[in-house]
Amino acid sequence: MTSPGTARLKALDSDHHLHPFTDFKALSEEGSRIITAASGVYIQDADGQRMLDGMAGLWCVNLGYGRQELVDAASQQMTQLPYYNTFFKTAHPPAIELAAELCRLAPDHINHVFFTGSGSEANDTMLRMVRRFWALKGKPEKQWIISRENGYHGSTVAGMSLGGMAPMHEQGGPCVPGITHIRQPYWFGEGRDMNREEFGKVCADALEARILELGPDNVAAFLAEPVQGAGGAIMPPDSYWPAVKAVLEKYDILLVIDEVICGFGRLGEWFGSQHYDLKPDLMPIAKGLSSGYLPIGGVLVGDRIAETLVQEGGEFYHGFTYSGHPVCAAVALKTLEIMQRENIVERVRDDLGPYLAKRWATLADHPLVGEARSLGLMGALELVADKATGERFDSSLAVGSMCRDTCFDTGLVMRSVGDTMIISPPLVITHDEIDALVSLARAALDETARQLAASFHLTSLTSESCS
Ligand SMILES: *Cc1c(COP(=O)(O)O)cnc(C)c1O
C-alpha cells in the first residue's frame, strides 16, 4: 500500500523533477519508485519493499550501504574544514593524502592525479590533457581520439562525444570535433559468425585501419573501458587487448583506460587495466573511488604525460570548484582504507568473482538466455528469442525492460541494456547473497517468459529447474 506521504512524494516528483536518462513524460505518468533506506546489499523503497541491489547503486556502492565509518569521515571533515579549493597554490590534507594513496595503489608508472567531481569531468579533463600533451611535444596535429561504438564515458559534451552511444550523439550536438569511433569487441552481439578470438583480432584490426585512415601523425589517443559497463558488461575476447596494445605501440598513440567502473576492485584487481595488463597512460576514475557515498572523480596520470605537463607545461587552464573537495576526498580515503583492511580486491579475485561465475553460469540453461557471462563482480545475460540460433527478440517488444521491471517486483535490481541484463553488485556481497541474487534472477526470467508467453501465446519458455 502506498501511504499518503509516499503518494505526495510521487506527485511532487512527477511535477518537478527531470530525471537523468529518463523519458520525462513516461515517468511522470507512471511515477517513480522512491528509495528511502539501504543496508548492506539491500535497498528499501517507500512502499516497504526490500530489494537486493544487483547494481551497487549505479556501479558505485562497492562497500555496500550503511558504512558508519564513511559517515564519520565525512562528518569529521565537515566540522574540520567543509570546503576549500585547490586552486592558486593551496591544498588541504584530505586531497593530499588521497593523491598519495591513489598513486601508491596505482601501477608503478602512475604517480600523479588530477581531481574532478565526476567521471564525466574526468573524461573532459583527460581529453584536454591528451591534446595539451601532444602540443607540448611539438605535435599539435595529434588531435584525434579514437574510442568505440557503444562505449560510455559520461554525459557532459566531451563525455558524450567520447562515448559511442548513438542516441546521445543525436541530442544536443554537434559533438566535440576530432573524436571518432570504431567497432566494439562485442562477440555475442556482433561476432558470432566467427570464433571469439578471431573476432577479437578483427576488432583490433579496425583500430589499425582507422589510424591509417586518419594518418598516425594525427592520432593522439585510444580510449576504452577495460570491460564495457553501460554498454552491456561486455568482456572482450582474450585476443583483443594484446592486439590493440601492439597497434598503439607501433604508431606511438596514447592509451587511455576509463576505469570509472572497472577501477577499485570490480574485476578483481585495483584497476581493470591490471587484469588485462594494459599499462595505460591515463586513467579516468570515479564511482567506486568513494563507494558512491559522495561525488568525486579524477584522472590518474602516467609518468610520460605528467613529466611533460609538469616540466614543460606552464599553467594548465583547467579545474573545477570541487576538484579534490575535502569532504569527498576524506570519504574516498576512508573507502580505500576499508578496502585494504578487508582485502576486498583479493576477495573479489580469489573468492567472490569465481563463486559468482559458477553460480551465474547456471542461468545459461534458461530458455530465454543465449549467453551468461561474468568477470569479477560484473555479469550479463543475453536474452534471446531462439536459444539454438541466438536470434534476438523484436526490439519493439522491449523484453529487456520487461525483465528489469519484473526483477524490481521480484526483489532484485538488475539493469537492462536493450535485451542484455546486467549486474554489478557491491563488492561485499556474500556467497549466500550471491545465491539469492541468482535465484531472484531466475525467478524474474521465469516471470518474463510467462508474461511473454501470455502476450504472444509462446510456450515452453519457462525454466524447468525452477519450481
Ligand atoms: C559512469 C561512467 C562515467 C561518467 O561518470 P559520471 O560520474 O556519471 O559523470 C564515465 N565513464 C564510465 C566508464 C562510466 O561508467
Automatic annotation (TrEMBL):
PROSITE patterns: AA_TRANSFER_CLASS_3. It holds the Pfam family Aminotran_3. CDD domains: OAT_like (cd00610). GO terms for cellular component: cytosol. GO terms for molecular function: pyridoxal phosphate binding; transaminase activity. The keyword Transferase applies. Its cofactor is pyridoxal 5'-phosphate. Keywords: Aminotransferase, Pyridoxal phosphate, Transferase. InterPro entries: Aminotrans_3, Aminotrans_3_PPA_site, PyrdxlP-dep_Trfase, PyrdxlP-dep_Trfase_major, PyrdxlP-dep_Trfase_small. PANTHER family: AMINOTRANSFERASE, AMINOTRANSFERASE CLASS-III. Belongs to the class-III pyridoxal-phosphate-dependent aminotransferase family. This is Aspartate aminotransferase family protein.
